[in-house]
């Protein structure tokens, strides 16, 4: 795992006044640069944790968190697409299928997410 990812792992929300938007931007930049699956999964865990805190903070403050939830869903799907792109241009159906299964199992993606439709299409191509 790279030191940039380790710094997020070791301090995802411990800093007083931690800014979820800044953490999100940092994770979005790193997701394209990670060298392996373990690092990607670490980033996804951190993202899930930080955004969960942001959603809870909004809820406790009486703010509607629906737009944030939609942005989180779009980010998760974007992460999976980036990870599934083998050559930087095309998406491998087997990889999409496997990634979506991994994310649903980990609880980071829900069955209502649009990428699951792409996953179903990828699965049908594989049959």
Describe the structure.
The chain has 127 residues and is mainly alpha-helical. The chain is built from 6 helices and no strands. The protein is globular.
Topology:
Elements: H1 3-10, H2 20-31, H3 37-60, H4 66-84, H5 93-106, H6 115-126
Task: Report the portion of residues in β strands.
Answer: under 5%
- Shape field: globular
Kindly name the structural category: mainly alpha
Quaternary structure classification: single chain
User: Unreliable stretches, pLDDT < 50, 5 or more residues?
Assistant: 12-16
Q: Specify the biggest β-sheet.
A: none
Portion in helices: over 70%
Distance between the termini: 35 Å
Order of helices and strands: HHHHHH
Helix count from the secondary structure assignment: 6
In angstroms, what is the radius of gyration? Answer: 15 Å
Q: Summed up, what is this model?
A:
The protein has 6 helices and no strands. The chain has helices spanning 3-10, 20-31, 37-60, 66-84, 93-106, 115-126. The termini are far apart.
């Amino acid at each position: 795992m790279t030191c940039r990812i380790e710094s997020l792992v070791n301090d995802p929300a411990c800093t007083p006044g931690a800014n979820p938007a800044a953490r999100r931007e940092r994770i979005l930049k790193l997701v394209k640069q990670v060298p392996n699956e373990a690092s990607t999964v670490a980033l996804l865990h951190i993202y899930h944790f930080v955004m969960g805190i942001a959603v809870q903070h909004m809820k406790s403050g009486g703010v509607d968190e629906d737009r944030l939830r939609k942005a989180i869903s779009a980010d998760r799907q974007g992460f999976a697409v980036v990870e599934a792109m083998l050559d930087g241009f095309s998406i491998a159906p087997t990889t999409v299928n496997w990634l979506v299964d991994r994310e649903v199992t980990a609880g980071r993606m829900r069955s209502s997410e649009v990428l699951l439709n792409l996953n179903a299409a990828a699965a049908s191509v594989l049959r």
